[in-house]
Specification:
By secondary structure, this protein is mostly helical. It has six helices and three strands; from the N terminus they run ααβααββαα. α2 packs across α5 and α3 crosses α4. It is globular, with a radius of gyration of 18 Å.
């Protein structure tokens, strides 16, 4: 591995771990909950469905994880009181998952955390650095999405 690749690898791994750690600390500080970061992101995904909710398939697609994994995780979150399941109004074979009152509260705190984090990062950077960072992350994200699509084939 050349010097750039080694440095980039270290930066990506370290940044990913730091973001997760900061999120974890936020959860522990602001919420006395028994939720993992993965469960938090699942709640975030379910929250995108609003009052109608989302199907298990929609959640799996949003998070790029398998249906069985989502089903198990949703059942755990339901037992913890953060989500509820409901049959579809027009098609009773469809099951929709939506947030409970506690789930909405957790989702709001998590959303505020991300807003604060992004605002803090933006304040830390010059306009030129913001543009450069955004352009770089757009390319990085496209690279990883292309890799995921290639692996699915």
């Amino acid at each position: 591995m050349d010097e750039f690749s080694a440095r980039l690898n270290n930066l990506l791994v370290d940044t990913f771990r730091s973001i997760l750690k900061v999120e974890e600390q936020m959860l522990q500080k602001h919420l006395t909950l028994n939720l993992s970061i993965s469960e938090m992101h699942l709640i975030e995904s379910v929250g995108k469905g609003g009052d109608e909710g989302l199907t298990i398939s929609s959640i799996a697609d949003d998070l790029s994880i398998s249906l069985p994994s989502v089903t198990v995780a949703i059942n755990k979150l339901q037992a913890k009181g953060y989500v509820e399941k409901a049959r579809g109004a027009t098609d009773s074979r469809m099951v929709y998952v939506k947030l409970t009152r506690n789930g909405r509260r957790v989702d709001e705190v998590h959303r505020r955390f991300h807003e604060t984090m992004v605002e803090s990062i933006a304040d830390y950077l010059s306009d030129e650095e913001r543009q450069t960072l955004t352009a770089g992350i757009v390319k990085l994200n496209a690279f990883f999405k292309d890799k995921l699509k290639a692996e699915e084939r």
